[in-house]
From TrEMBL:
Full protein name: LacI family transcriptional regulator
PANTHER family membership: LACI-RELATED TRANSCRIPTIONAL REPRESSOR, LACTOSE OPERON REPRESSOR
Coiled coil: none
A single MF term (Gene Ontology): DNA-binding transcription factor activity
Keywords assigned by UniProt, alphabetized: DNA-binding, Transcription, Transcription regulation
Pfam families from the UniProt entry: LacI (PF00356), Peripla_BP_3 (PF13377)
Superkingdom, natural source: Bacteria
SUPFAM superfamilies membership: lambda repressor-like DNA-binding domains (SSF47413), Periplasmic binding protein-like I (SSF53822)
Classification via InterPro entries: HTH_LacI, LacI/GalR-like_sensor, Lambda_DNA-bd_dom_sf, Peripla_BP_I
Limits of the HTH lacI-type domain: 8-65
Length: 340
């Protein structure tokens, strides 16, 4: 049987035209840096050789994606961030890959793996980075954007957050306006930048009103339900228990609610509680939770768009963006109870 004719290649066409393979490739891809005469010759020879471009290789599964990485198990806060990033990614035609950090090692090899998987950028949420980790990403030419970082490395890193100080201030001022003076703060990790800002807002409001922060009234832990329950129990068991508690996030606030109920306290008749974030659980609690709305979906969207701008080589207006917070008053706060 006669052998089937061999398919023409770019090298075949290039040899016939007396040009390089790169020049033929430029013509095929419509590049403008080829002279009209050369373009005409190459196009004619492509037809003469009946050149058919090979079927495109399947792109790696991670192509045109951005990695959205969390440092712990997903919760209501994470869901809001994800929804905002996914919506912005859909508008831009970019996929979002959600991952949870495993271990603490982040090296050059780790950064190269992200690039090899087709990631355009990395968005790290409430994570803690060493100065070497952003450097590893920079060497791999992979842009990094942080959301509510626990710490900011000494190297300049782009980050997205909210007006945490103003949020802490407004939450505490709301409780003070209801007549409360014994107000406790139960927050997250002491070193977390967002927690520090909320705590400073709380202290500023208390100081401005002349309301003392009693010993044991400031507690720290993680932004988790069980931490809120444990710290809430400790605060409510103090000899002079607070009449109101400002919790550093909604999940902590729900834990405080459970600690209060276990002690027979009614909310808000006996104890007022304010949260932070305004996630879905704030509306599902009984009573619904007064909280500071942190624009989490908008933060996810801004982070995604910022990451894509950096990936395209564009400059950003600011390396740190803060979106406005807003107090949302619901049923978990009331005037101070009449008790000693």
């Amino acid at each position: 049987m006669p052998s089937s004719p061999r398919r023409a290649t770019l090298a075949t066409v290039a040899a016939s035209a007396g040009v390089s393979v790169a020049t033929v490739s430029k013509v095929l891809n419509g590049r403008s840096d080829v002279s009209p005469a050369t373009r005409s010759l190459v196009q004619s020879l492509l037809q003469q050789h009946d050149y058919v471009a090979p079927a495109p290789r399947r792109e790696p599964p991670g192509l045109a994606t951005v990695e959205l990485q969390f440092d712990a198990d997903l919760n209501a806060y994470s869901t809001e961030i994800i929804q905002g990033a996914v919506a912005a990614g859909a508008e831009a035609g970019i996929g979002i890959v959600v991952s949870i950090r495993s271990g603490t090692a982040r090296t050059t090899a780790w950064a190269r793996q992200l690039v090899a998987a087709g990631r355009r950028a990395l968005i790290a949420v409430t994570g803690e980075l060493t100065s070497g980790q952003p450097a590893a990403l920079a060497r791999a030419r992979l842009p990094l954007v942080l959301i509510d970082p626990l710490n900011l490395p000494r190297t300049r890193v782009t980050s997205i957050g909210s007006t945490n100080f103003a949020g802490g201030l407004s939450a505490t001022q709301h409780l003070l306006s209801l007549g409360h003076r014994r107000i406790a703060y139960i927050g997250g990790p002491p070193a977390a930048a967002c927690n520090q800002a909320r705590l400073h807002g709380y202290r500023a409001a208390m100081e401005a009103e002349g309301a003392p922060v009693l010993p044991g009234y400031v507690r720290s832990g993680h932004f988790r339900y069980h931490d809120g329950m444990a710290s809430g129990a400790a605060v409510l068991d103090l000899p002079h228990a607070p009449t109101a508690i400002f919790a550093g996030c909604d999940e902590v606030a729900v834990g405080v609610m459970e600690a209060a109920r276990a002690r027979g306290l009614r909310i808000p008749e006996d104890l007022s509680i304010v949260g932070f974030d305004d996630t879905q659980i704030a509306q599902l609690t009984s009573p619904p939770l007064t909280t500071v709305r942190q624009p989490l979906r908008e933060m996810g969207g801004v982070a995604l768009r910022t990451a894509l701008r950096l990936a395209a080589g564009e400059k950003v207006d600011s390396h740190h963006v803060e979106l406005a917070t807003e107090l949302v008053v619901r049923g978990s706060t009331a005037p101070v109870p009449d008790r000693g």
